[in-house]
Automatic annotation (TrEMBL):
Residues annotated as binding glycerol: R80, E81, Y132, D241, Q242
Lineage: Bacteria, Pseudomonadati, Pseudomonadota, Alphaproteobacteria, Rhodobacterales
Domain Carbohydrate kinase FGGY N-terminal stretches: 3-248
Assigned protein family: Belongs to the FGGY kinase family.
Protein task: Key enzyme in the regulation of glycerol uptake and metabolism. Catalyzes the phosphorylation of glycerol to yield sn-glycerol 3-phosphate.
Activity regulation text: Inhibited by fructose 1,6-bisphosphate (FBP).
Chain ranges of the Carbohydrate kinase FGGY C-terminal domain: 258-448
Gene: glpK
Enzyme class of the recorded protein, top EC level: transferase
Record's GO cellular component terms: cytosol
Protein name in the entry: Glycerol kinase
Residues reported in the UniProt entry to bind sn-glycerol 3-phosphate: T10, R80, E81, Y132, D241
Residues that coordinate or bind ADP: T10, R14, T263, G306, G409, N413
Organism in which the protein naturally occurs: Paracoccus suum
Amino acid sequence: MTILAIDQGTTSSRAIVFGTDLRVRASSQAEFAQGFPRSGWVEHDPADIWASTAATARAAIENARISGRDIAAIGITNQRETTVIWDRRTGKPIHNAIVWQDRRTAETCAALKAAGHEPAVSAATGLLLDPYFSATKAAWILDQVEGARTRAEAGELAFGTIDSFLIWNLTGGQVHVTDATNASRTMLYDIHQGVWSQAMCDLFHVPMAMLPEVRDSATGFGNTRTDLFGAAIPICGVAGDQQAAAVGQACFLPGMMKSTYGTGCFALLNTGGTPVASRNRLLTTIAYQLDGKPTYALEGSIFVAGAVVQWLRDGLGVIHNAAETGPLWDRADPGQQVIMVPAFTGLGAPYWVPEARGAVFGLTRATGPAEMARAALESVGHQTRDLWDAMRADWPEADSSAVLRVDGGLSANEPAMQFVADMLGVPVDRPADVETTARGAAWLAGYHAGLCPGPDEQAVVWQLDRRFEPSMPQDEREARHLRWRRAVDAVIAVA
Ligand SMILES: Nc1ncnc2c1ncn2[C@@H]1O[C@H](COP(=O)(O)OP(=O)(O)O)[C@@H](O)[C@H]1O
Ligand SMILES: O=P(O)(O)OC[C@H](O)CO
């Protein structure tokens, strides 16, 4: 038997067929259009999301030379926070999906912050008042689409993050659910009580009648329509993509930490069964929920990591593909120490300044593509160090014996990963299996279906590809990171 993992990401949809040993059997991937209707706005057409998901799932099944009847369980993992509202009767979305990167509700968040609401929001949801999360996005749609609020209150409309929207479509409109990890990104969910928060729904003007039922990350989420894949396949695992990566990296013990370098960078530190309230502007979130028990994490979210490499390619045109940044790093003049702060869509953790924009410091006439590429990659290491410092301050148990597990497209870049190790002063481990996000979703589904072993055994099969040991002298590490902090201060000062 096999397990199908659906990984619906920000720029592409992927489907991967795993054996029950969690080895990849076949996969398929399709990019879809990004909508930028105004500066700071980012939208997806939900029809594209659904069509690319269904098409890649079918293609992966075909590539594996199996049929839907050979799939014992489906696991879903998804871009988080992105918000869809649809009509329960027709299944039709009433607006494009508002993507996690979208900043259109920045003013709403600023006003709520100024009115003193942030402590209550953080206490209930573990999050900060930022446009990143779903609540203000949902309210924006209800305010803009005529009649939507009344219909939502009457229970005619459904709200969902992408997992909910996919499950709704996969089950033919039968099931309106989400899992605890996705719920914990909405800013409407009480992560301590494990229920939707009436106080948050009131504050953000989101009617409770439109919210999905919240379930464990490994449980039954309904069966697929038989006409989709030729069989009614049970959906047994769901988690937001960053949480699924933590699961795929087998970060099952308190103190274990992973960092995923895709478009952005998201670091999660497992803090066990007790939520840790951050004093350093990190997020408290649910890492996974098994058998009704949430495991919590501290999360640092950086909006631009791999995206800075895309900008070198598409914006500056100094590279043709991402992998060229490795050799360019080697050619860069190390004496120049150019600093790039890639705050293209504001600064995320631990600064949270939505108005900030990017800057490059230390340019000379001798600065060329190599120095720019190196500065871009170094920004990833500096940002990870910022998160690391915040995590150690919030949770001193994250001591010097710690290791950072990395994954995501940019983790293929050797000098960048070496620089992360140098900035943190701890080893950085890259696993042999880089499909960690999909693997996490597959494990959740396989675990519930009785096909995969429990967390302890699963942790043992995690395999190392390469360990990056820190080699930069301590005084150099601290001096270089101090210059970065000053550059960030300057970016914030002009925001
Ligand atoms: N060798 C590389 N060096 C630097 N960046 C890379 C490399 N390979 C991929 N990337 C970057 O990684 C990102 C893609 O990673 P991926 O995990 O697929 O992201 P996502 O799931 O967010 O789309 C891109 O932004 C790309 O620029
Ligand atoms: O789709 P990704 O990999 O860019 O991940 C997006 C995150 O889930 C946003 O919180």
